[in-house]
Design brief:
Two copies of one chain form a homodimer. The first copy, chain A, is α/β, with parallel strands linked by helices. Chain A has eight helices and nine strands. In chain A, helix 1 packs across helix 7 and helix 5 crosses helix 6.
Chain lengths: 199, 199
């Protein structure tokens, strides 16, 4: 379970897309949500669209790794699909914030790798939030506040990568993923291989 | 402190040389030894050549990260030089066996990354040991025994890499080194950088 978090505007979504496009062994975790499906979205691909009652049942039955309410709707990560994928040797990418990361890590510390992406400077972060927003200075300030709150949790991550160049940042995140796959504890076939070597 | 271990014949020395040649930020840890200097060797570069009395004093004063007696001579890793280098942000490569790795890890778990290189197959390991040895079958069998003993400690390492192709193996080991440098806990300048971002 490969978690990417960052304040918005630091490039996490771009890096996620690059990772998913370039690596057939990792897939995006599909969240469950109570929000209505939007035109163009596919149930089971963009989200698992569920009723509030079904979502509550999943929370109650501990079927979610992490969940959060954002405004009027709930979002969460169903365990079953991820667990089956992990057992089959697949990796999953999580594009979640510090709260989701804390919950996920609490539930399964062994299988989680946490990567935090930082913008190269405060000025660049402001510039990106302004470029995106086209909104009032109040809205921008509130986005800056959210970004600061997210950044303040940088110490809850295993790796920190500064995104001053998107290709360099992607290369670094890819190196982290590649290295984590070489961790002894993640190589399930190793014990048989070693037994064969020592025959 | 980046440790590479492997049974002899698995390519560790080649990989070490490639790493040292390609990366100016890592240097080989220079061991202290009681064995006599050989023609062509440079004191302080190949080894720190010391007397047995001096070596004993270093052991007694806990000035070595790890040490071992091999036949008639002692070999060990002086702490002072490594510590000063680490403080200055340098990395050190250790080409040591499982016993040295255990000792080093015991002394400083935080700063140690342990990588184990495995040969691609038993047949290939045998082939390499025979090609090298040009020795009696007894000598070869004793080398195989030492290789098996080394391999049996694969579970004391953070990463395991199979060397079926030296360039691919080098690329993997380099990825591990790069990823480890991105670990939050190893990036000493990060806290100031984050403070600046949240200004």
């Amino acid at each position: 379970m490969f978690i990417l978090s960052s304040p918005s505007g630091a490039g996490k979504t771009t890096i996620s897309h690059m990772l998913l496009a370039g690596d057939p062994e990792i897939s995006l975790s599909v969240s469950a949500t109570t929000r209505p499906i939007r035109p163009g979205e596919v149930d089971g691909q963009d989200y698992h669209f569920v009723t509030q009652a079904e979502f509550d049942r999943m929370v109650e039955a501990d079927e979610l790794y992490e969940w959060a309410r954002v405004f009027d709707h709930c979002y969460g990560t169903p365990k079953a699909e991820i667990r089956a994928g992990l057992r089959a040797g697949r990796d999953f990418l999580f594009d979640i914030d510090w709260q989701g990361t804390q919950q996920l890590f609490q539930k399964d510390q062994q299988d989680v790798v946490r990567v935090f992406i930082l913008p190269p400077s405060l000025e660049e972060l402001q510039r990106r939030l302004i470029a995106r927003a086209q909104d009032s200075s109040e809205v921008i300030e509130s986005r800056m506040e959210r970004a600061r709150a997210e950044i303040s949790h940088w110490d809850g991550y295993d790796y920190v990568v500064v995104n001053d160049d998107v290709d360099a940042c992607f290369a670094k995140v890819s190196q982290i993923l590649a290295a984590e796959r070489m961790k002894r504890a993640r190589q399930t076939g190793l014990i048989g291989f070693v037994r064969e070597l020592m025959r």
